Description:
Elements: H1 2-22, E1 29-47, E2 50-70, E3 73-91, E4 97-116, E5 123-139, E6 148-165, E7 173-191, E8 197-200, E9 204-214, E10 223-234, E11 240-244, E12 247-253, E13 257-271
Antiparallel strand pairs: 1-2, 1-13, 2-3, 3-4, 4-5, 5-6, 6-7, 7-8, 7-9, 9-10, 10-13, 11-12
Amino acid sequence: MPASKGTGHRAAMLLTLALLISSLPVRAALTWHLAADIKAFDYRETREGQRLDREQGWLPGLAVGLEWERGSWSLIPELAWHGGQVDYEGQTQAGQPHSTDTDTRLLRSGLLAAYRLPLAPLQWSLLAGIHHLQWQRNIQANGGVAGIDERYRWQEGSLGLQLALPAAQPASWRLQLHYLTILSPRLTAEPAGFDPLSLQLGASHGWRVLLSLPLPDAAGGHWSVEPYWERWRFGQSAARPLTRNGLATGWLAREPDSLSQHWGLRLRYRFGG
């Protein structure tokens, strides 16, 4: 069953992360970072291979994080936020084309653990993380068509590899590849004229790739520019009846399959170290 599969993935991710954290030495060097970010947001909903709607636009963002490092181990908690307005192109329930704007807010918080492998001359690290994500999606009313407020919440488990060169240098370039497992995705919505409802979405997977490139800096390479790409899916939900004041209306709500794909560029400054 899908629920059992999702639970198994979550348990494996949490166990891996717990093993990494339990082996982290107590005494560790501490640095922290701030970052400014611009994300090319792209979201599509489909049903039976046919596109229902698409949202595209640029989302500026900010991130702050810490890094504890001792020997071969690192532990990195981070909080990241993006927000802005994107273009919505879709259709009404009657199948008529519809265009509007969507107010979009993304919040991501969590923990990444890394273990540097004793391999030379290249520096390889194992990565494992667990993050919580929220997406506030407010589709605006336009042209007599009502808007809708939606909020998505899910957990993201990740396993990955990092390659750094030159080895053991703070200013080295780094390439990260993460395999993502999407856990317990849920949508809550407030459709106009109906009671709020909650839909359990299908769990899925995704990928994230990040390249960190140090910039020339007399202070020791504290600046870096970081292009990245990420992609994941949500599966279709089961149908739920729509109610009004607790009474059945005869209407059903179902969230379709969806694909999120983002390109981004981050400028990061590291303090300490």
